Amino acid sequence: MGPGPSDVPPSVLNAMSQPLVGHLDPSFVQMMEEIKDMLRQVFLTENDMTFPISGTGSAGMEFCFVNLIEPGDEVIIGVNGVFGGRMSDVATRCGAKVTQVEAEWGCIIEPDQVAEALASVENPKLVAIVHAETSTGALTPIEEISKLAHEAGALLLLDVVTSLGGCPVRIDEWEVDAVYGGTQKCLSCPPGLSPVSLSDRAMESVKGRQGGVQSWYLDVNLLANYWGDGARVYHHTAPISMNYALHESLRLVLEEGLEKRWARHQANHERLKAGLDGLGLQLTAQEGHRLWQLNAVGVPDGADEAGIRTTLLNEYGIEVGAGLGPLQGKVWRVGLMGHSSSEENVDRFLAALKSLL
Ligand SMILES: Cc1ncc(COP(=O)(O)O)c(C=O)c1O
Fold this sequence. Notes:
The protein is α/β, with parallel strands linked by helices.
């Protein structure tokens, strides 16, 4: 019940332990097609360029920036927690001129702030936003920001590492141009792959680059020769067992149904909230924009934040996350992600917390 990795269903673990085939084996190639198809259903997109990057969520982040950004490009990045800060670091390493739009940790990035930043630069190439900030528990609405970015001629990049599979993520409807997720949060798969998707507009931008993509490993032009629709050409040895796991976890997501899965995450968040109310505890993220899958719970005055977290782990077998940055010592981060989002987990956590307090 921390900020990820979440619990992994037995059938996903079982899939990982199946015998290996080669990365060009016909059965694996067939599985790649099924993974791409299921990822499109989960991202709610028809983008051709939809596949998993070999690497964790940060690799997906880096993939998006190295392909879309050239030195000197103007980039606007929302920073309202750890991961907006990481995006700024990655974009700066690509040579971007970064304008940060900052919000207090726990609050969302407001469209007005993005509009102001867009107006302050000459030729904005990209607006990048973390949809679900795992470090604070805030969910930034994206539709208005997307319109503003496109009106200014910029692309929109979205981090859905924590949102994908746990709450609505609508890539085509929101006109997101580049998106990356992670496997270990609401998809309930071990960490190791990062599902990504690029719109046609993003691919045109890649094709129009003046210089080559700085990274060989993450160059979408090369990766397309392996993951695209044509003949499969070896690029790197795909992590076979991780792809088995992702295939099974996506199958489970679609078997449950996206809407039902989102509703389960919402219901368990509300159950937790009601129980916390009963204990006199508050959720700290901005009201109306709280994540269902990551709940930042304010530590009450006088309580031993680290001591309670350690006892929860050692005596009750319940992991919760600590606060980061300005929230260090102030919140517990309680994950209700994917397979871990259950009534039983909520009730066990509440009972344990009550007895410790
Ligand atoms: C919102 C968000 N973005 C990016 C990342 C980085 O992902 P990873 O740790 O899998 O590299 C995380 C990880 O927790 C995250 O929560």
